[in-house]
Amino acid sequence: MPKEMHPEFARLAPQCFGQACVCLLASNEIQSMRMTVAQVLHEIAPNDLEQIVLYLAPHVTEDCRAMAAELSKQIPKVQILQQVQPGLWHDIQQYLRQHSQASHFLLAASDGEMADEAFGRLVEGSREKPAQVVKFSRFMPGGGFSSEHGPLLQLATRVFGIIGNLLYGAHLSDFTYGVGSIPLQIFLAMYLETPSYAGVMEHNLISLRMHLPIEELPVHQVARFESYSGNSIFAKFLYIIPLLKLRVAPQDKLFRTEDAPK
Fold first, then answer.
1. pLDDT at 14 (0 to 100)
2. pTM > 0.85
């Protein structure tokens, strides 16, 4: 029997879908960033989309930064945020507290890996079940990996997922994949501090600890055509740190009650 959601998260869970704030992680993407922004605008209806935040990594290339600036000038809903603080999510959480009234936070990369209708499916999933996380899985029937993810990387992803599910008592088919949608106020209440790429799954780990339901949808990644991925087998070992740390942390250390709206 599923455990009840933590009362603090239950208090913050929305009753319905309002609008989505889409966050696209960026570091070296150029034309794929333009394509991803166009995909978001095509798949999410204007009334359902609050804004698109291009979240630039500290090591962002100048060409990537220039493309982000061009898009923000051309498209009113596109905003730029440069990561400067340690911790993957500190800057985006601070920005959203001040500049977003959306009901849901959609996370993806700007690398063009999302299959057609991926963003639209996340919105519809959040519309149907607004009080839970909706995330993608590459292992579900109908899903799949791009050519960049060879057999060894897929095996490492699978093994890590088995370990994660055992530790957290979960049944996720794609444990490390962070692309998805989460209620915004719950995301803002989370204490997120992982500085590395492994932070992309941190909010899912806290969701599991707080018994926030997670719905998985199949997705087939599209191969990148210009940018490079930092998601190597070695990078998978970085996941161990938040995996263990968040598993043993007391629940009251996983969220900030002072930041939650009263």
1. 97
2. yes
